[in-house]
Amino acid sequence: MNKVESAISLLRSKSIRPSIARIKILEYLSHTTEHPTVEMIHTSLLPAIPTLSKATVYKTVGLLVEAGLARLLYGEDCEAHYDADISDHGHFQCTRCGKIYDFAVNLALLETEGLERFAVTERNVFFRGACPRCLSE
Ligand SMILES: [Zn+2]
Ligand SMILES: [Zn+2]
């Protein structure tokens, strides 16, 4: 299955009509580890889809998050970042360069107390600090 076909079938599996913008945005998110903001997604896709508005990007990423095809995380900058990797993993944001890194985390081993009567729908592990690249500067 090529990139476009897999984006289309993912959208269809969630009963989302696969418009060009939705396909391109999901495809872009699936192939980046940058955890882009709406601004970044818009800037990157504009050459390919000159008619793409920022409002459409906002609406589309909201739709993808709601459908469980992407996740939303708030960075140090208080900006919304999007990630199409919905598997369990932690995030580390560098407070110097702002880059968000993925890291492996075993959420099954995470011990919690006091949540017995709560229905948990999302678990985030978020670390911040300085990345190796910034530390070596
Ligand atoms: Zn850094
Ligand atoms: Zn991630």
Task: Give the arrangement of secondary structure elements.
Layout: H1 3-13, H2 20-30, H3 38-45, H4 54-66, E1 71-74, E2 80-83, E3 90-94, E4 100-103, E5 126-129, H5 132-135
Helix pairs in contact: 1-2, 2-4, 3-4
The site of one zinc ion (ZN) has 6 residues, from loops.
Report a brief summary of the structure:
The chain is α+β, with helices and mostly antiparallel strands. 34% of the residues lie in helices and 15% in strands.
Notable traits:
single chain, 137 residues, alpha+beta, Arc Repressor Mutant, subunit A, Dna Ligase, domain 1, 2 domains, 3-stranded mixed beta sheet, two-stranded antiparallel sheet, 5 strands, globular, binds zinc ion
How does this model look, in words?
By secondary structure, the protein is of the alpha+beta class. It folds into two domains: 3-74, Winged helix-like DNA-binding domain superfamily/Winged helix DNA-binding domain (Arc Repressor Mutant, subunit A, Orthogonal Bundle); 90-135, 2-Layer Sandwich (Dna Ligase, domain 1), CATH 3.30.1490. 34% of the residues lie in helices and 15% in strands. The strands form two sheets. Strands 4-3-5 form a three-stranded mixed β-sheet, with no helix packed on it. The longest helix has 13 residues, at 54-66. The mean pLDDT is 93. The protein binds zinc ion (ZN) (2 copies). The site of one zinc ion (ZN) has 6 residues, from loops.
